[in-house]
Design brief:
The protein is of the alpha/beta class. The chain is 44% helix and 10% strand. The protein contains 18 helices and ten strands. Helix 9 packs across helix 10 and helix 11 packs antiparallel against helix 14.
């Protein structure tokens, strides 16, 4: 069942109609989207490099596109790039830092678990390109893959032009070769699993094209790529993602790197979206069908003060990522935090809230707690917030950097909370 009791696996739309309606449609090698509805081979893969131990809501948009294909009978393959993750997907503005191998392994495990939860398919197959690259002979790679591309073809890629053009930062040979490696991934998966469709974000379509080229050149076969637009943050105009400094992580707790967003903050992010972005975001990030979504938007337009659509969006996305139980709990938690006297909460109640809020360490000083929980970006900001009377501990304003030696709810301003345990 979907977030509003609908049978989300029995959509009345066919695949191509739903992809276009939800906005999962950017550059593609497929001439007519309707070809997807009756495609003989219903296998696809989507790739994620393990550059962090959590996906973001930018990745979530592509994952929701993958889930859409799964609902319409496609079998999903997730490529977690243990090999490509050691190089890094080239950016337009500079080299990525290389990750230690142990960190790459940790990130792979975390990302795989998140993707399985979102796609919700018993047939999801995880593959790792490190398995086929670890023993590959460099000369063999050059003979098979390198000879299949012209330098003109590679130099024409947008990210290469941005890096080597006037004012560019230059590019290493490793990152320049990234598109060949990703192209070989597609070729390998075609040979080993018969996969002839790659899904991706719009920024990856060029790399997908490398695989299409290799499969045609070396196998004499046809393969395709389908991309979805990058999601733009309505508040900032920037894309959702960790490289933009505005990451909302799918991890609800810290897996060791600090790359997480508490379930409460995750829910609050969506419920605070502006009216102008609601339809756009609901189509991408919820499982609502068209009739129900349109009904919600109609009711919202009649009573915008009730924030009906914001609540539907926040509930729907939180259910997808964290599950129905967590969504229900965080909705109830929000009601309590914004309506109850925080000084009346018991220690047991605060501990229960700690499942969904950012957590600080008891016996630490207040300013350290504010920074550790993300309520302040630095101790300097924490000091200013406290001096301005913006910080309360269990409902009482605190202006000094005191040690917090009890279980407590710390609040910044009107709507930012953390627990101390």
């Amino acid at each position: 069942m979907g977030p509003f009791g609908i049978l989300w696996y029995n959509y009345p739309m066919n695949l191509s109609e739903e992809l276009i309606w939800r906005g999962f449609y950017a550059e593609t090698s497929i001439k007519d989207p309707a070809e997807l509805d009756n495609r003989a081979n219903k296998k696809f893969y989507w790739g994620a490099d393990p550059s962090a131990d959590s996906l973001t809501i930018g990745n979530l948009a592509a994952a929701m596109m993958c889930a859409c294909f799964v609902r319409h009978g496609y079998q999903p393959y997730l490529l977690v790039g243990g090999a490509t993750g050691q190089i890094g997907d080239p950016k337009d503005n500079g080299e990525r830092d290389l990750k230690p191998l142990e960190e790459v392994e940790h990130n792979k495990a975390c990302i795989g678990a998140q993707m399985k939860n979102i796609v919700r398919s018993d047939e999801l197959v995880m593959v790792d390109n490190y398995e086929w690259f670890k023993d590959m002979n460099y000369l063999a790679f050059l003979r098979e893959v390198g000879k299949a591309f012209s330098m003109t073809q590679l130099l024409d890629r947008q990210f290469v032009q941005a890096r080597i053009g006037e004012g560019g930062s230059g590019i290493s040979y490793a990152e320049f070769s990234y598109t060949l490696i990703q192209g070989y991934d597609f070729l390998h998966l075609y040979r080993e699993y018969g996969i002839d469709l790659q899904l991706c974000g719009a920024d990856q379509f060029g790399n997908c094209s490398s695989g299409i080229h290799l499969i045609k050149r070396l196998e004499g076969a046809t393969a395709d790529a389908w991309s979805t637009p990058l999601v733009i943050d309505p508040a900032t105009g920037r894309k959702f993602g960790k490289s933009e400094g505005n990451a909302i992580w799918l991890a609800g707790r810290d897996n060791g790197s600090g790359n997480y967003t508490s379930v409460f903050d995750f829910y609050q992010f969506w419920i605070n979206q502006p009216d102008t972005a609601l339809e756009y975001l609901m189509k991408i990030y919820t499982l609502l069908e068209k009739p129900e979504l349109e009904e919600i938007l109609t009711k919202h337009a009649e009573h915008p003060e009730q924030r009906i659509a914001q609540k539907a969006l926040a509930k729907g996305v939180t259910e997808v990522v964290h599950g129905k139980e967590a969504a229900k709990a965080v909705i109830n938690l929000s009601e309590r935090l914004f309506t109850e006297d925080l000084s009346s909460l018991t220690g047991e109640e605060i501990v229960e809230m700690g499942k969904y809020l950012a957590k600080g360490q008891m016996s630490d000083k207040l300013f350290d707690i504010l920074v550790a929980t993300g309520l302040a970006s630095s101790k300097g900001e924490a000091r200013k917030l406290a001096a301005a009377g913006a910080i309360t501990v269990n409902g009482t304003k605190v202006t000094e950097d005191a040690v917090i030696d009890q279980i407590a709810i710390v609040k910044r301003g009107k709507n930012k909370f953390a627990v101390v345990m």
